[in-house]
Design a protein that fits this description.
By secondary structure, the chain is of the alpha+beta class. It has helices spanning 18-33, 43-57, 65-74, 100-116, 121-128, 150-157, 191-220; strands at 3-5, 8-10, 80-81, 84-93, 139-144, 163-164, 169-171, 174-184, 187-188, 224-225. The protein has 7 helices and 10 strands.
């Protein structure tokens, strides 16, 4: 089904999803409405106009010192120095055109097997893993925060569990069976040393929420065909 935004056909081929293509068109049309963009402008000009639009219409609150301190106190695990995890994995790679449900089914079956018999992990990594680490029985070695993709990092650093994790870890590469063999907790950094980092994290989160709300407002006033965007009924900018 083709995607249309307020009657305008949207070329979704260059976008990761129909939703992102529709959002871009919503923002482009809003920039045209506010005369920030000329009719027939190229993609580069559209991108610049959308940046000006968002700077003008999306209000991002600055985190207060009190909010930053509360966040730091509530999430000490995010601000440790020297925190390490020794992990192994078995990767079931997902590539364009591959049957994802079938791959997940195989991964789930092997997960249950190695949960019941952890001694089989090395052999299954050698036999089944689509990662070069399979030749080393799935060994990833010593990992610190920032060394892997965010979704994998979140899974291996969450909690204090050791052994084969109870659920598959889904990343942009596919499905992983993960075993955590050792955790080294590291030391909590003092607040003053990470205050700027905390503020940046809260600012980024606030910006994401504000942009999402702004898009939902536009979607609520738009005529959308072939795509669904969550609509909001109250305006973002008062």
């Amino acid at each position: 089904m083709s995607v249309r935004v307020n009657g305008v056909a949207v070329d979704t081929g260059d976008w990761p999803s129909d939703e992102l293509a529709a959002v871009h068109e919503l923002l482009r049309q809003r920039a045209r409405e506010l005369e920030l963009l000329d009719e027939g402008a190229d993609e580069a000009a559209s991108g610049e106009a959308i940046e000006r639009l968002l700077a003008r219409e999306v209000r991002v609150p600055e985190p207060t010192p009190e909010e930053c301190r509360r966040w730091y106190d509530a999430h000490p695990e995010r601000y440790r120095s020297g925190e390490l995890v020794h992990a192994r994995h078995i990767l079931f790679q997902v590539t364009p055109g591959t049957p994802v449900p079938a791959i997940r089914g195989v991964a789930e079956a092997i997960l249950q097997e190695v949960r019941a018999q952890p001694e089989l992990f090395a052999a299954r990594a050698r036999e089944k893993s689509n990662c070069p680490s399979g030749a080393q029985e799935g060994q990833l070695g010593q990992l610190q925060r920032g060394a892997t993709v965010p979704e994998f990092e979140k899974a291996i650093f969450a909690g204090n569990e050791l052994g084969v994790l109870p659920r598959l870890v889904a990343t942009r590469y596919g499905f992983h069976i993960v075993a955590v063999d050792l955790r080294i907790p590291g030391e909590l950094l003092p607040y003053d040393a990470v205050a700027g980092r905390v503020a940046n994290e809260l600012r980024t989160a606030a910006e994401r929420r504000a942009l999402g709300q702004y898009v939902r407002v536009l979607a609520g006033d738009a005529e959308l065909d072939g795509v669904t965007l969550e609509a909001a009924t109250s305006p973002l900018v008062q």
